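Task card 7
Instruction: Convert sequence to structure tokens.
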Amino acid sequence: MRKQNSKFNTNFISEEGSSLKNSDFFAYAELDNFACYVLADGIEDVADTESAKEAVESIIAKFGEKPSISKGKIHGYLNHANEVLLKAEKYMKLKASIVVAITDYESVRFAYAGNARAKLYRNNKSFYKTTDTSLSSEMVSKEMISEDALSRHEQRSNLYAFLGQKGFSPVISGKIKLVDTDILILYTKGVWENVSEGEIDNIFADSGKDPKDAIEKIEKVLLDKEPEYIDNYTIAGIYIDKVFVESDTKKKKRRKLILIISIVSVVVILAAVIALYFYNRYRKELREDMNTHYEKMLKFIEMENYTKADTECEESIKKAESLRDKEMKDLLYHYEQVIEGILEADEKYDAKSYKEAKPLYEFILSEIPYADNAGLSYVRKRLDFIAGYESVNLSLDNGDILFDSEIYDKARERYVDAKTEARDIGYEEGKLKAEAKLLAVDQAIEKENEGKQAEADKQSKNLQSANDMLSAGDEALSKGDFLSARANYNTAKDILEKSGESAGLEELEKKISTADEKISLSEEEKTSATSYAITADEAFLKGDFETARDNYEYARRLYVKLNDEINTIEMDKKLSDVQKRIDEKEKEELKAAQTAAQPPQQQTSEAETSASINAE
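Output:
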């Protein structure tokens, strides 16, 4: 009964700050022989998610099943919490910073990932503190920035380790012996972003025997600074007035005997242990290398440096193959296809072969969902530029046709449109071309006002140009390029109206109307598909899986019709997930029915857990 022969005094505060919801969560469990203190700070991608609460409760529950201070067990607690968050990743992307302190009332061990922090004070001085797993902390360790600047550095929340990630790897400390009057604190970034480490140290150095007083002083310092925005903030203090001391001499002798026996056993099997040790160390180092290359690859992708990302991906694949990690290897192969596809498309893009680059980027979009949407914004940005490039050149070409047909006012409109769009997308060459053509058309307009041109030749050329544009419009319409079709039809109409030809205008009006209807229908179907998908997501979150499945199927049919491959793949994934939920629900209902048909059995369980519930 270690707890009865020690004295740990715990208190905490947790507030939402300037936010509408408090995404921090703190809880602890003090059992007979072990105690666990857990603090999490939610990193939310979707409103109203509770990643911090999920993480803390799952760790406390796992600790309650098999309490221990061993590094392996603690690693298991955190991995369990990570799996809990990953199960919801496809819909909520639950992520959190985590810090855990586990004690046997004699010693303490810390585990953490992210930028939630813990400190141990001894004799009014900081004895131990955790280090954020962030880019800013790495920069501090490399002396690129000072530690005082950490709370304001823009990369302080750029985390390379946190709960809710694949390849999760927390930091677990060694066992630290406790002494009477030690002070242990856990706190989130809402505290350390606004109260310096020096201020925190001074307050706890001068504190009495009640953690409540020191915690309230921390909050007062934070609020007195009146920052423009205060993030959720949580701080917990555990004052260790008395640690457990083993007093049974027989137990000490028994432990000594066990130690001697263990040493003898180790000597007997030393060769096997050494071999196993080196093999496990080799695999651990191999996995660490794989994860390091994987994280570097993700950073290079984020930096849009795909050449270096490709190198890191290849190295990570080699390690995964050596480890025979099929799941990681499959994921990395998808990343490799995306990265190498982008490099191939970029080669065409950089050479300004946009027509060849476009289908390559479009093909990459179908593979991106299997690589955690890596490079999605980059590819879309490139495709947006290509679309703008094509639109600018289409406007220039149409302007040239109008210019050659001496319809200078309409040609000028096309050149102005081309210049405006080229400027908006950063297409400097197109902008210069448009400006040159605007100068030419202005000169032609001025010359037209001064001279005359043979009307018959102009009329013939106009009719030929109109026919060419009409043919181009028909070809675009047959290919489903309704916007280009409408632009070509309108150009043909402008030419005919300018030349005074009425023949064919009625047919052109019908073709323009048809193109408009096609464009409108496409937009309506796209809106309907989005609406079905949203309705399905809402039904899924409410647990109405049948309604979700029906609406996902409606959305998928429309995306197939629209040739929207990436959203079609997304609907397939969601249909697969919702079908799994329906199957699980049916199994649970069948199991419940079978249980109800059996005579009730009395079960008893006993657990002594004290928990503090987070204040929201």
